[in-house]
Predict the structure.
Amino acid sequence: SQTIHQWPATLVQPVGSPLSLECTVEGTSNPNLYWYRQAAGRGLQLLFYSVGIGQISSEVPQNLSASRPQDRQFILSSKKLLLSDSGFYLCASGGGRGANVLTFGAGSRLTVL
Amino acid sequence: AQKVTQAQTEISVVEKEDVTLDCVYETRDTTYYLFWYKQPPSGELVFLIRRNSFDEQNEISGRYSWNFQKSTSSFNFTITASQVVDSAVYFCALPSYQGGKLIFGQGTELSVKP
């Protein structure tokens, strides 16, 4: 079974500072990888997904970017954080058309002040 | 368009009560899967169940049961004899047409009080 590692778990950053959230996956190869954000309230918004190294699809225009430098590594970044970037960020692995279950990491809670 | 609707934003029950969480979905696909996830206060989403649209039989797992009705596009989740540990946000989800993404409902926050 897959294991998703996310770090840091908690982050407090000032507006305008850079961001790097990292996600690594164990127990599978060539997974689909996803970054979701959960803002205040509960909705899960898909930010980015990747079907392979260097292949990134963005779901919504925003201040964030994603990269996949290795098969099982997915990074979420920003050059300058905004207050609206605050939220709970979840990395997920798996998916694929139809049946594949998404496995989620424990999440990274970002507060921008 | 694909969509998942969880109309109940918050539900509060007393321990040992039964509770049903509603999920209604929209999809053009004739074959599809549906999912339920649980998000306890720790934040990590935990997979509960996956159902194939071909199989409309109710699924039971311990105190959990799922009622899938294709005719009404609903996939409801019932917890029998609820416990405090069931307190969490529950999400219903449907795979997107592209990229294997999951489309989530807005979630239902269940609070079980002792």
Remarks:
- The mean pLDDT of chain B is 91.
